[in-house]
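Lecture notes, continued. The same structure-token format from the folding unit now serves as the input rather than the output. Read the line below as a description of shape only.
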């Protein structure tokens, strides 16, 4: 059986299965949630895992634990906790499925332009390495969890615009459903995805197709997705807290956290100061423009959407990983490469490009990157310190943990720790009431254990240690971890 015949027999089910296997295999080596990696060296993922666990354990969100993300992020992390409750391996499973879905819709999008299953596979398989590119990726964050919904939206829009395959019910349910999911994850990303919906509606109007049914399908799917969460919030008397924390305080904290860079010009200066951002933006922009040369209509929609996403992620860009949700637009590069190369040069040129990305990711993540320090084959002082700090909590069932004046680092994962209160870790950019709530957890002695860090050259932070002791906690252990002296205190009986 020749190769062309094999590819001719591809079905969506087979392709999805292939991407499922590919996703789980590659993430064994590149995701710190995989069984090949330990529990140490985490920040955001430890924070989200604590919240996801608390959510499905039964604590009330935005009241008994608080963050400024939407509940679907906690749901995904909660599912990971249910799968494997004392480590992050459940998130390896959740991410494996989500990345497989992302790759599947990347493949469907590539096929809109390439009109070849074989070439579309070639364009898509390396995307898993793009998603784990070490410039902006270190651990599973909300940006990773949002990728499938961006990928689905791109496919739903582009097949209408460029393949002229219009299925109003399926397309607008995909667009409206993804919009609703993104609203319940991180609403600034939903705002940009909403532009795709507007373009699809304009195309609908331009072709003299009715607008009532598309709006109807979007409303129906949005209600189906959002209703369970709204009902839950009403039943637990947390609806008001959800709206206030997620839609009001979230913006305030981002503004306060990034108070040194409030203007668009300063955000632009932040790009120019980092060559990685420049290279990434140039690659997406140039490949998007080259793709536009191949299009007969809506020529600049792909590059415009990509730039809108990048602009949104640049605004108040405190951390580079915000760009992670934009990685899907690197697909343009692979599509353009395969459109440009002829049959003789395509294999060599594309092969070299793919090999470079694979080797760079492996080199960046496993040889010089942060992940190298946290494999199950690695023994270092940080891993020992993490274990020793965590072990202090081993004799308490589901200990309540407060990360006082510091971030959540995941010390309680292996012993089922739960948040000690709403502001269970120090809120970056927190408003004065939030900071008061954070400190009140300590003074009310709601925590079984308190973790903090204080360097010897930070005499101004010594008061933090005194506050913990004055609240009725005794020091159990001090260890150096991630170049910081960490202290763990236990509540006195």
């Amino acid at each position: 059986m020749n190769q062309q015949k094999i590819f001719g027999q591809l079905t969506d089910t087979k392709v999805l299965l292939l991407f499922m296997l590919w996703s789980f295999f590659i993430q064994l080596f590149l995701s710190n949630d995989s069984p090949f990696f330990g529990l140490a060296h985490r920040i955001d993922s430890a924070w989200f895992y604590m919240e996801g666990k608390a959510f499905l354990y039964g604590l009330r969100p935005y009241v008994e634990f608080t963050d400024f993300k939407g509940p679907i992020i906690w749901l995904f992390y909660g599912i990971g906790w249910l799968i494997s409750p004392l480590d992050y391996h459940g998130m390896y499973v959740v991410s494996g499925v989500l990345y497989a879905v992302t790759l599947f819709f990347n493949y469907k999008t590539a096929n809109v332009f390439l009109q070849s299953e074989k070439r579309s596979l070639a364009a898509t398989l390396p995307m898993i390495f793009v998603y784990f590119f070490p410039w902006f990726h270190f651990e599973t964050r909300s940006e990773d969890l949002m990728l499938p919904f961006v990928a689905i939206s791109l496919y739903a829009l582009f097949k209408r615009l460029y393949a002229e395959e219009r299925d109003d019910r399926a397309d607008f349910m995909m667009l409206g459903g993804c919009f609703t999911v993104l609203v319940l994850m991180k609403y600034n990303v939903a705002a940009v995805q909403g532009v795709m919906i507007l373009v699809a509606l304009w195309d609908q109007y331009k072709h003299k197709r009715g607008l009532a049914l598309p709006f109807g399908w979007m409303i129906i799917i949005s209600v189906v997705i959002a209703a369970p969460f709204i009902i839950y919030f009403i039943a637990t008397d947390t609806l008001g807290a959800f709206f206030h924390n997620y839609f009001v305080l979230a913006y305030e904290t981002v503004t306060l956290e990034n108070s040194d860079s409030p203007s668009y010009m300063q955000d632009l200066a932040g790009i120019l100061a980092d060559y990685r951002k420049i290279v990434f933006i140039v690659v997406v922009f140039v490949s998007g423009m080259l793709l536009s040369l191949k299009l007969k209509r809506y020529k600049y929609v792909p590059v415009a959407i990509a730039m809108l996403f990048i602009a949104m992620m640049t605004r108040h860009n405190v951390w580079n990983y915000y760009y992670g949700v934009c990685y899907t637009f690197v697909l343009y590069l692979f599509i353009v490469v395969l459109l440009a190369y002829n049959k003789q040069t395509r294999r060599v040129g594309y092969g070299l490009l793919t090999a470079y990305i694979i080797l760079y990711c492996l080199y960046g993540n496993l040889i010089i990157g942060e992940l190298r320090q946290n494999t199950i084959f690695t023994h270092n002082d940080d891993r020992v310190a993490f274990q020793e700090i965590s072990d202090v909590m081993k004799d308490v069932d589901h200990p309540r943990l407060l990360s006082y004046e510091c971030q959540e680092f995941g010390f309680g994962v292996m012993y089922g720790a739960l948040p000690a209160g709403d502001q269970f870790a120090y809120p970056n950019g927190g408003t004065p009431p939030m900071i008061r709530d954070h400190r009140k957890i300590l003074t009310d002695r709601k925590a079984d254990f308190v973790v903090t860090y204080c360097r010897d050259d930070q005499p101004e932070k010594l008061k933090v240690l005194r506050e913990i002791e004055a609240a009725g906690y005794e020091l159990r252990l001090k260890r150096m971890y991630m170049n910081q002296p960490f202290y763990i205190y236990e509540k006195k009986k």
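Point for the exam: The mean pLDDT is 87.
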